[in-house]
Amino acid sequence: MKREKLLDILAEERMGTALEEALKGDVEYQHELEVQETAFEEMKNVMLNGEQETVVEKAISATNNCGALYGAAAYRQGFKDGIRVVCELGEIA
Asked: Which residues contact 75 (CB under 8 A, 6 or more apart)?
């Protein structure tokens, strides 16, 4: 199996399990989820029509998707960097 593929599999597994578990206990993240929920409720209260809501939801979804992809790429890069450091330390020792 190629090294890149293995790293992607490991990162995906950790993001789907360990990261989710860690975020459940992260007070700051949980607070931001509550802020987000409140903001969505406020947005729904001020929407004038369904078309406006659809446009805003589309924009928010696109932003969320970009953020998720960025976060996943950053996680994978950090994982790769960590493995590279361990390998380099092994060469030094």
From this structure: 11, 14, 15, 19
